[in-house]
Amino acid sequence: MSSSSRAKLSPKKKIADRIKSDLKQAVLDGVYKSGDKLSPEVEIARQYRVSKVSVREALHELESEGLIVKKRGIFGGSFIAEPGVEKMVNVVTNAFLFGGVTVTDLAEFRQILEPGLARLAAARRTENDLVAMEEYIAAIHHSIEKGEPNQTKAIGFHKLIADACHNRFISSLMAALVHVFQQVLDKEPDMETARKDIRFNELFYEHIKARDGEKAELVMKKHFDALEQIIRQRRKNGETIS
Predict the structure, then answer these.
(1) Who's near 171: CB < 8 A, 6+ residues apart?
(2) Segment holding 77, helix H or strand E
């Protein structure tokens, strides 16, 4: 591309960035809230005295970032997105699939993060959290008894621990991490691994129920030592886990 072509593109890119920045700030300032409809493209273009091309570029980038959603039809338009777990899931999944982040990177991050979450869950858990954990453990036991251990469900128990911290960001982040590991570690039933996992989950439950954060944290550290061995063994067996 020639220098003259770049010069022509630069102003458009600059105004698109400004529109995007202004709309983000409007959300932060409370001008727009989740679910609110943005002004039509033609009105935004008129406000900035630019063509609709620049406006569309700004809106496209906001949509790519998950900050707005576009709806078609007579009542369509651009709307401020509702905050949701799926956006965090997409970010972490895309980082793993396309961004060069490896399962080892994510495991290392979880190893730093989750012992602290286990301790926090022990302090903040409610009776409803315990009921959810009991039901999850019962379902895992049932799958083992049927000879069809569900490893991805066992990993999902970590989301329940995060939920027991009663912090929305923690829950969203753990949902994303769990989603990636469920895909990575999904494989043929492995009874030995399943039995080890359910025992860890039972210990998590036991210490969280007793509000013993120190023991819950210690068990979590031991769990990640076991996870590291699983990843190492799969690499040894030639399995592709990134």
Answers:
(1) 85, 159, 162, 163, 165
(2) strand 77-80
